[in-house]
Amino acid sequence: MNSKKCVCLLFGGKSTEYEVSLRSVCSVLENIDRDAFDVITVGITKEGEWYLYRGDADAIKNDTWQKGDVTPVTPDPKAGLSVRDENGAAQALGIDVIFPVVHGKYCEDGTLQGLLSICGIPYVGSGCTSSAVCMDKTMTKLILSNYEVPLANALSVSARELEADLDDVIYRIESMFRYPVFVKPSSSGSSVGASKAEDRDGLISAMKNAAEYDKKILIEEYIKGREVEIAALENKDGTVTLSCCGEIDPGEGFYDYETKYKNDNAKYYIPAHILPETELRIKETASLIFSVLGCRGLSRIDFFVRDFKGTEQIIFNEINTLPGFTSISMYPQLLEHDGIPYSELITRLIETAGV
After folding, report:
1. Maximum mean pLDDT: which of 211-215, 289-293, 325-329
2. CATH assignment of 134-150+224-351, among 3.30.470.20, 3.40.50.300, 3.40.980.10, 1.20.1250.20
3. How far apart are CA 347 and CA 35, in angstroms?
4. Residue 144 phi/psi, 5° resolution?
């Protein structure tokens, strides 16, 4: 009798972060404990088609996996994830846990989590509500503003407002902020669609760019400070382990998608170059955020640290409930620095899976 759990690694997705997912799942495939788990892979194409994939990781890396040995998969409330036999009947894949190694819209914004919950299969990561709230930066800030969480000043506008009265939107922004400002889609990850606007022309361009990715646009004050991240890992007993802090020096500009995944301009420091009391405040604040937002399993929580009147002031930036698992991703690196190897991290995350 096979006592090993069957773990389904879900990758791809209808998301601008599709390529990041391919890199992440290859890293997980290389490190998951095969003695503890039977592993199957299900890929979601950019068009939203689900396939059971039986090939190797190289085809995933090259994004040719969907041309290989694949079988259509159907999410089914009765059979979970299933394939169809020659008579069209659903045949369950026998999955015990799903590990969604996915990122971005339709992947970590609660839509996928809701579907998996309907199918009744335990999955790694936060549930539907928490995923949706954390993905929407405007909603995240609105909730956290009721707690003692330091936040940057921000204003949310809709794409419809831009079309209806651009001058009024500009007036509201310029009445509230000095340039430069940051403009980003409210619901997007990996800095996709985000840009820094130095003046009015840049602001207009940045808002139009952000509107291509989301109907809601977030404008934030420019914070001149260091970018510091911390990893949160839920334990089986419900307690949360917080890593040391890591620091990112993006070089010129800010930590955008190109810097994160397509060039090596950024420098990473683990642990971060911050004072012990600053790290303590970040840990206390990160713990509060994880709890208030109802997170489960894992999250990476990002802050700015800036010099303010001779002290280090922390400001919450954003939270990511399904952070990258690539070979250069900060989340697994932070926990590995603290003594949790990549393979053990995967195992511990699977142990926290819920419906």
Report:
1. 289-293
2. 3.30.470.20
3. 11
4. -70, -20
**Residue 190: per-residue pLDDT:** 57
Q: Each residue of 251-273: pLDDT tens digit?
A: 765 544 454 555 467 899 999 99
Residue 28: per-residue pLDDT: 97
* Minimum mean pLDDT range among 78-92, 98-112, 335-349: 78-92
Q: pLDDT tens-digit profile of 340-354?
A: 999 999 999 999 998
